[in-house]
Amino acid sequence: MVKARPLRADAQRNRSAILAAAREVFEADGVFASLDAIALRAGVGNATLYRNFPTRDDLLAAVIEGFFVQALKDAEELSRTLAPGHALVEWLVRVAWGLRIWHDLPTCLATAHDDDASPLHSANAPLVDRTGVLLDAAKAAGDVLGDVTADQVFELVLLLSWGIDRFGDDEAAARRRVTMAVTGILA
Question: 3-class SS at 23?
Answer without folding.
Answer: helix
